[in-house]
Backbone:
């Protein structure tokens, strides 16, 4: 299992990802030997803010299942690790823990070197973007052509009423009542 040095990498309320449940990259945490999943159905909207943020509501998971968790961690020195382990849950409670891998990905010095290279490259690219007339012209043109493409796409979209009538006649709407949902927000 984890030795004391490795265990120090994890914060008390560390959140992990898994691909083992619900076919999505859900966020999970293990708190007091119980498995919890972040409830993504509750979206908190703030007035005047364009983006949404997830409500911080955690639901208990009461399944009997083996789950592989994985994440990237930093230690006190700034070194980066990738970690993967398997938890066995019985009725949502931790039964077994098995460390699959704990690998040093980058040291702090390696990360600083990569960041420095990135900064140098971006400075060169930004200078080119701001001084090249050809680049600025085609960037402007691309933006306007994208707007025109989106406008044209909206103009030749099939009306939802026509699609509904066709789905009713073909029997698709009866077989799959949610088949029109993907066209509602377009």
Residues:
């Amino acid at each position: 299992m984890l030795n004391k040095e490795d265990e120090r990498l994890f914060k008390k309320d560390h959140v992990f990802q898994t691909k083992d449940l619900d076919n999505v990259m859900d966020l999970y945490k293990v708190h007091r030997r119980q498995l919890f999943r972040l409830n993504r159905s509750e979206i908190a909207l703030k007035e005047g803010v364009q983006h949404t943020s997830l409500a911080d509501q955690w639901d208990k998971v009461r399944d009997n299942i083996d789950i592989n968790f994985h994440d990237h961690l930093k230690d006190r020195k700034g070194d980066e690790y990738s970690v993967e382990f398997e938890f066995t849950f019985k009725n949502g409670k931790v039964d077994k823990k098995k460390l699959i891998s704990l690998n040093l990905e980058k040291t702090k010095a390696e990360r600083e070197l990569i960041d420095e290279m990135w900064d140098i490259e971006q400075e060169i690219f930004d200078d080119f973007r701001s001084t090249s007339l050809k680049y600025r012209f085609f960037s402007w043109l691309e933006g306007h052509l994208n707007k025109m493409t989106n406008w044209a796409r909206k103009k030749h979209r099939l009306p939802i009423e026509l699609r509904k009538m066709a789905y009713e006649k073909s029997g698709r709407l009866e077989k799959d009542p949610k088949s029109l949902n993907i066209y509602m927000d377009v």
